[in-house]
Amino acid sequence: MANELANLKPSPGSTKRRLRVGRGEGSGKGRTAGRGQKGYGSRSGSGIQAGFEGGQMPLQRRLPKRGFTNIFAKEYAVLNVADLESRFEDGAVVDLAALEECGAVSQAGKNGLKVLGNGELTKKLTVRAAKFSKTAAEKIAAAGGTAEVI
Does domain 77-149 have CATH number 3.40.50.10350? Predict the structure, then answer.
């Protein structure tokens, strides 16, 4: 036979038919369908759950639990005054869109932008943000700029 598309088939022994279990006694896998007699593995829905360690106390239950997560916590993108000094010209308007454009902030936090007071500022900037720390607002005002809360 020639090697043609019409004659192609898998090598002998390389494929195996799917075993159809629970199809009667004559199939060889009837009655208990290969699940054995009684026990956990014979029941529907059986299978080891995630984290099960054979009856030993699971790791997530052995470890101590500490603290909690505040579901009402506000999430801000944070930026220091020093970053404003190096990235913007004198007299510029700084808002979230301008910061994302220049790469200072990768993405906005759920509640916007918060400016912190780490570093020095000598340029007169108009900064628009959701929140300012007290030192950040003082440094922006001292440089002759304005800190506008959105």
Answer: no
